[in-house]
Design a protein that fits this description.
The chain contains 7 helices and 3 strands. The chain is mainly α and 227 residues long. The protein is elongated, with a radius of gyration of 20 Å. The protein starts with 6 loop residues before the first helix and ends with a helix.
Length: 227
Amino acid sequence: MFWDTTIILLIPALIFAMYAQAKVQSTFSKYARVRNRYGYTAEEVARKILDSMGLYDVRIERIPGNLTDHYDPRAKVLRLSESVYGSESIAAIGVAAHEAGHAIQHAKGYVPLTVRNSLVPVANLGANLAWPLVILGFFMGAPGLHLINIGILLFSAAVLFQVITLPVEFDASNRAIALLQSNALFTREYIEPARKVLQAAALTYVAAALVSIMQLLRLIIIRNSRE
């Protein structure tokens, strides 16, 4: 990463990203100490939600880590972290319901999810190759302008992935809350805490998108200054 005056653009975004990470950790920790009244585990709630939507073929697995939860559309597996899988807490159930929301998006062909999944290969390529190409282009001087442009184009794909992720995550959270209510898995007193956990988690995606956008803006400014 270059050190120049455009780094100033990144500072607010990085501060917000640190705040978002701290917020999700503190909110999850707070509600991880509050058990649901019915004694359901997060895995049981996720299973009930999936079955209520006819998604009997979606498996649920326990994986290592803390908040490493995700839905794998290729394998049709909902993976819950060790801190979530067997927990009866409001926080864990909120996270599990959110991931079940992604499985439902996949089953229903939710367009933003489909678009995001199709962007994964090019987004990964862009995130890994963009900066090396840009740096190499600058070392080459004027002839390297073509490489810089390719790097910016690749990084734009990574930024687009981050931006499209936002509606996908917000929709999954909204589905989670609605499903918890419609399946009578939560009493009203637990809905707002679960919503707070999911809102805090959503901030991390907003922060990631903001950092990516600022990085792209930096690249464009740096590129234009070298013409």
